[in-house]
Amino acid sequence: MKLMSQWIPILILLALVVSACSQEDSVDELPMGDAARGADLFTQSINGAPPCSGCHTLDGNPLVGPSFHEYGKTASARRTGITAQQYTYTSIVRPGDYVVDGFSNVMYSQFGQRLSRQQIADLIAYLLTL
Ligand code: HEC
Description:
Bound molecules: heme C
């Protein structure tokens, strides 16, 4: 019994850390996105990161990455059991988690650090209008 009670603070701490991490990792924790701002951000280099438009077109022609022509449809169909929002979020902050067929894992990987939570939300809102 004594041994158990010694572990309780550590277990509580562990639970807190785990829940903090998983919150950070969910699209639900982002602020409300603004698609119009996202459209502007799409072509900008933010905080030293390359612009999305350097690798993604909107017209259906793949560049370094897939085109975002009709991306709204694509995003909900890519993976089962995950929303279009969550898929898009993960694709931005951890592009290596799921690599689209026919493409290489070469997307810039620091967007999660370089963009603000608001900017990520704005980009997601924008992409899902396409
Ligand atoms: C250096 C090139 C590069 C840049 C810059 C880049 N991407 Fe990508 N992106 C890729 C590549 C390559 C893929 C396909 C491989 C993969 O799934 O990771 C991809 C995949 C994606 C996907 C999944 C597309 C699909 O059809 O399922 C999304 C969403 C995405 N990128 C969003 C963004 C956003 C938003 C930005 C700007 C903040 C951005 N990308 C900047 C190269 C890039």
